[in-house]
Write a structure and sequence with these properties.
Two copies of one chain form a homodimer. By secondary structure, chain A is of the alpha+beta class. Chain A folds into three domains: 196 residues, Aldehyde oxidase/xanthine dehydrogenase, a/b hammerhead (Aldehyde Oxidoreductase, domain 3, Alpha-Beta Complex), CATH 3.90.1170.50; 317 residues, 2-Layer Sandwich (Aldehyde Oxidoreductase, domain 4); 143 residues, Aldehyde oxidase/xanthine dehydrogenase, molybdopterin binding domain (Aldehyde Oxidoreductase, domain 4, 2-Layer Sandwich). Helix content of chain A is 29%, strand content 25%. An eight-stranded mixed β-sheet of chain A has the order 3-5-1-12-9-10-11-20, with helices on both faces. Chain A has a five-stranded mixed β-sheet with strand order 7-15-14-13-8. In chain A, α7 crosses α8, α10 runs parallel beside α11 and α18 packs across α19. Chain A starts with 11 loop residues before the first helix and ends in a 10-residue tail after the last helix. Chains A and B meet through α1, β9, β17, β18 and α17 of A and α1, β9, β17, β18 and α17 of B.
Chain lengths: 764, 764
């Protein structure tokens, strides 16, 4: 059985040897180079351009401004299309824009024969603006009476929705309760994938091809068609290996503009986005402010009701917009059971800050920060152990969501908590670190979360897969699902091997997606691929088996009753009938009945599954320095059956690192003009190897009855629980509740000063 | 109906604008460059190398000699594999060879960082040989008692076979007959495709990819596996647009060596073959000497028997070997009916000349030269009109071959002859030009031929095809069959459109074959693709229709009874039910039953069909100059139904041009060392535009019941009949029978002198 094996990454040797081909490796010689002219105001209008100096630069071949580009609004998020217009994404982008909504908005583009000429010309484009005051917070945006950021969105409120689950008022009115109210604020952070967005586009006949670093080639195809106003069948997207995405490339970023440039010029045009542009112009994680209340029975520790009021700052364009804060408040509600009722209001508000979108966890790192801070605050208020109160209130096996009917059919959540607690030495250390007064103090903290394994039933879940058999009995696995660095290709190969009954080494994955020939799949997001695409792989493996058995029956003049595949042979009644290699050779070359053995299926998925996990952290807090140092950190995950435990562990390590940066150092900072101050990897404080303790990943394997191989989500969850666990450990160590991320030294010190732990620190 | 429409070439705009991507356009920056060291003897052994000077060249990274390369014999012809080892091709090649069999044999290879370094190092490789006398004719080869060219082939006879059809002896013994015996000699010519063989190879994991200019990617995959001794599933071949092949790229030329270099170095290695190497080291048309006899009833003009003894010169390696002369003697036999019997002996003989292989017409340009010269000689001998004797004796409708059961189910041959004769003004000019004595004389000549539409039942015929539907109701057509400049992609698109019921512009052909994902098809040769692949396209179009109808039935809650596709809509009972675009959108995005609408099939083909044609020529002969000038030339073809008449016409023009060079000027010439003297496009006399009269192509459309759309072979036939028609026109003009090709001035003048038409020309 290939499931559960620590197969080495199928893309490993090529990636470590530098042989793997990324988009930049494929750019043909002689491609023209496009560079974007970005606005130097955050809010306002482009009135006119003076292009004379730019056009005079040697090597410049074309300049297109927002006055040349089509005025076709299109959406950018990587969601499956809906044929129901009421469920379609907000279309608030155009290829280039006269209406400037963020500092750095795309207002023109220069094309030249080389990068130097293009960049020189960009600097020589003169722009006349009509400037408006920048709107730089959600409160300002909601209060603004001036020109709205989008004219069809007066008041800058993109969307607000309210959830009333049973009777929250009854909880408020219940006698003998303790009520805890607090506010939690998360910050805007960037994905910081190693490879920036890069694409090049060229024409083939009347059709345009874009080779792009994306997570979602089939969705990019659709949006390029929409944005350029051409039939979707005239668009071809090719996705080579990519250097990470983390959700930023679950967005259709610059492919439409790149395609349009090829359509306009008829030439091959490269559009290579810099790191600074990636920070400023692509997407980031939504900063969300949560105002939360919990009403708890102090005797039993049971939650009676909670309220979650979440304001999410969207920045200049809708992108994934409200879906993220909606996901956040849903998880906030689902992770614990409120006995009487739950109330939530979620709002998504445009500002002139950089646009936010999908990022690993899709709102849940934010909601988990709120819900897990709140639970520790409640535990503290009623004097209960944070582990115990979670065990008591967390989502139980069999839970059915009242709104979506999504059901919890497997749960290792309690076991995860026990495993994590044991590793960290919870019980002893909660006592040991209870009362400290020294400069260096220790604490242990924890957090939990749930995470869905795809987007059903909110949206469509569908995946197609194809298998092609070779003469030697090996196969190609052909998917629309994408390897984005997460190890997808390896586990897909294992799944196909398991489904067919052959070793993983006999499966060659077609890693590059070409939308002209790849089976349709919406792509890498929502931790969906091992679950949804996994089902398609299982189906297509079974379809291929049927084809193999039918050919074996023909070849051996028998029937396919009782056939199986073992040791690279078709067996019948347990006895070898024909080797797969011989069978395949005959299938290709039989003089009476040649057949290319292939199979292709679509799996329409109407299942979903809750994955779970928790984080336990021990920190050392240097009180006078305001410095938090994680000493021990462990994530324990229930992601159902693990397809490849070693890869799962690596996935968890990466997520924990992302969580660490989110907790302690990362934050996009703006000046009062709305200009990003630290949009580069020097000033933006991504944690380095030196900032990491040993990362420990543990698993509780359950066998989910709906997962294709018992598996559930794993891609995004590891990034979720680290920040609140650290915050709660600091609370344990110091008694100070840090309710705003990141917990960087200055902010920590201010909080410690506020709590009287340090004095006169500003003078010190 | 899309069949029979003059659709513009789907690859036309990209090819004329220079946007089309050929192999050279795809070579990644930084690829290493390989150059081959060629032997400087024609027969013998490499004893040793001195590489010291070559290795010292700056930029040289590797040198591999024949002592390093694996000693795995492999075949090179582009034939379908046979699982029966008795029917497999001769395996007489190795990647590099110690045993030198042709001048220029591949004995070592230098790899360097650039072309200059590689070529410099090649010139500095010192080689010690043990030289043997070169064997430069078939007679010498058969008589040789020395070391054979291949040690397992003593006497250098690769193969000989004899055909006894009924009773040729009875014809010989028949009373009152006229017997004509003559010898006809064809020459060695080269394909002269514009793009030389070029490939580059690189590793992906344990697998090797070769991007190559080939007609037969799936066969190249297999042979690379054989030659490198690796499983075929570990090989991936990608075929971009190619600049012609004409059969030379129906051969696995340098892809195995290129793959092996990537396997050895782990690097991307380019192997770009020069024009001189293409002449010397790839393939060419077999020179065949025919000794023919015809026994005819002089009263009726009926053939009683014919004999054809054919010696084919193979050169140093087997390549397609005996298959070509076997095909030649078969067509010689089939094109006319011998009343009493037929006798043939065909021999293929190794020499140290350059290797011969497949070339447009596959032996039939040679056999047609013999059979059509012979028929004019017979007509002359009995005083009958050459047109009449052909009409009387040619293959009739309903003909069944006694050996293969191949049946003539459609024939426009007689109608072709009539159409050609009318165009050229046959009857009048045969009389008008009967007796001329001036220096400038005119004559009219003709020839006919038959040609099969694939290789069944000699070998396997199989083709697979896949269609992928897009959201806008357009489709991709995904084939293993190859566009090689002949217009295949255009007619495939028309066929798919016809099979589905949509306009051709809604079909996007996937022109590049990638053996990892392309359906299996043996490729472009034997004029098979419109016939065999056409059947697969018809089948897959029908399979897609079924899928479309099933989804329409689901969508509209009805059944698929009486559904059809008209005007981009599914209609039922003649009324529009749903547009294809709406249907496709729902298929992709239906929330209850999403399906990626695709279809994939294999067609195993057990049909074949005779295509026919003829050529009529009027020439002007300048007797004192020995110069033959075609004045008017027309090919008339019966290729069944024409898919695209304009493209068919273009195909005929190209073939006629090739026939003209074959007739008048082209010939590969060797010195007594076996060294090719004119292996370049300056010294090798390919006809230029100035050498062409207006080329006229005409058709007689039949509707073959076995062709997928009534169509039959057209790719190769146009090259066949030109040379004998010109020869016969010269015979008509001068009474001189030119029995050796090419009919270049020196040879013509010698013949005229021999016949007494010119005197003392050598002194003149």
């Amino acid at each position: 059985m290939e499931i559960g094996k620590n197969i080495q990454r199928v893309d490993g040797p090529d990636k470590v040897s530098g042989r793997a081909k990324f988009t930049a490796d494929l750019v043909p010689a002689g491609a023209l180079v496009a560079k974007i002219v970005h606005a130097e105001i955050a809010n306002g209008w482009v009135e006119s351009f003076d292009l004379s100096e730019a056009q005079a630069v040697d090597g410049v071949t074309h300049i297109f401004t927002c006055f040349d580009a089509p005025d076709i609004p299109y959406p950018t998020p990587g969601h499956p299309w809906s044929v129901d217009s009421g469920h379609q994404d907000v279309m608030d982008r155009t290829l280039l824009t006269r209406r400037v909504r963020i500092y750095g908005d795309d207002i023109a583009v220069v094309i030249a024969r080389d990068t130097v000429a293009a960049e020189r010309a960009v600097r020589l484009v003169r722009v006349q603006y009509r400037e408006l005051p920048p709107i730089l917070s959600t409160d300002e945006a909601l209060a603004s009476t001036g020109e709205p950021i989008h004219e069809n969105c007066p008041g800058n409120l993109l969307k607000r929705h309210e959830v009333n689950d049973r009777n929250y008022a009854a909880a408020l009115a219940a006698p003998d309760t303790v009520t805890v109210t607090s506010s939690y604020q998360t910050q805007q952070v960037q994905h910081c994938h190693i490879e920036n967005p890069i694409s090049f586009a060229y024409m083939e006949g009347q059709r345009v091809t874009v080779v792009s670093s994306t997570q979602i080639p089939h969705i990019v195809r659709r949006v390029v068609g929409q944005a350029c106003g051409i039939p979707w069948g005239k668009v071809r997207i090719i996705k080579p290996y990519i250097g990470g995405g983390f959700g930023n490339k679950q967005e259709v970023l610059y492919e439409p503009l790149n395609a349009w440039l090829a359509l306009q010029t008829g030439k091959t045009v490269l559009l290579d986005i810099s790191r600074e542009e990636t920070f400023q112009n692509t997407r980031s994680r939504h900063p969300i402010r949560f105002n939360c209340t919990a009403i708890v029975n102090p005797k039993t520790g049971r939650l009676l009701g909670r309220e979650c009021l979440a304001d999410s700052q969207q920045g200049g364009y809708a992108s994934h917009g409200h879906a993220i804060v909606a996901n956040a408040v849903t998880e906030f509600r689902q992770i614990y059971l409120d006995e009487l009722g739950h109330h939530a209001v979620a709002s998504t508000i445009y500002t002139n800050h950089g646009t936010t979108g999908a990022m690993r966890g899709y709102g849940i790192p934010q909601s988990a920060f709120a819900s897990e801070c709140l639970m520790d605050d409640v535990a503290l208020a009623i004097g209960m152990d944070p582990l115990e109160i979670r065990k008591l209130n967390c989502m139980p096996l069999g839970f059915v969501d009242a709104f979506t009917n999504m059901t919890c059919r497997s749960s290792g959540l309690l076991a995860c908590m026990e495993k994590g607690a044991a590793y960290i030495g919870w019980a002893n250390k909660r006592i040991e670190y209870a009362n400290q007064t020294a400069d260096l103090r220790r604490g242990v903290g924890m957090s939990i979360f749930s995470y869905k394994s795809n987007v059903y039933p909110i949206s469509l879940e569908t995946a197609s897969a194809r298998i092609i058999m070779n003469q030697d009995g090996t196969v190609q696995l052909h998917l629309g699902a994408t390897e984005i660095g997460q190890g997808g290709d390896t586990v897909f190969s294992q799944m196909a091997a398991a489904a067919i009954g052959i070793p993983t080494e006999d499966v060659n994955i077609v890693s590059t997606q070409d939308t002209d020939v790849a089976p349709f799949d919406t792509g890498a997001y929502a931790s969906r691929q091992t679950y949804v695409t996994g089902k398609a792989i299982k189906d297509v493996g079974e379809a291929l088996r049927e084809n193999i058995f039918a050919f074996a029956a023909y070849l051996k003049n028998t029937d396919s009753e009782g056939m199986d595949i073992q040791n690279r042979h078709v067996v019948k009644g347990g006895k070898p009938l024909v080797s797969l290699a011989d069978l395949a050779m005959n299938a290709f070359y039989d003089l009476n009945h040649s057949r290319h053995l292939t199979a292709e299926v679509t799996h329409h998925c109407t299942d979903n599954a809750f994955a779970f996990g928790c984080c336990f952290v021990e920190v050392e807090v240097d009180v006078p320095l305001g410095k938090i140092k994680p000493i021990k950190i462990v994530n324990v995950h229930d992601s159902g059956k693990l397809i490849n435990p070693k890869l799962a562990e690596a996935q968890v390590h990466g997520g924990m690192s992302m969580g660490l940066g989110y907790a302690l150092s990362e934050e996009m900072k703006y000046d009062d003009k709305g200009r990003l101050l630290n949009g580069n990897l020097l000033d933006y404080k991504l944690p380095t190897a030196m900032d990491h303790p040993e990362l420990v990943a543990m698993f509780v394997e359950t066998d989910d009855p709906t997962g294709p191989f018992g598996n559930k989500a794993l891609g995004e969850p590891p990034a979720i629980p680290v920040a609140p666990a650290i915050r709660n450990a600091v609370l344990h160590a110091t008694g100070v509740a840090l309710n705003q991320l990141p917990m960087a030294p200055q902010r920590v010190l201010e909080a410690f000063a506020g709590a009287g732990l340090v004095k006169n620190w500003e003078e010190a």
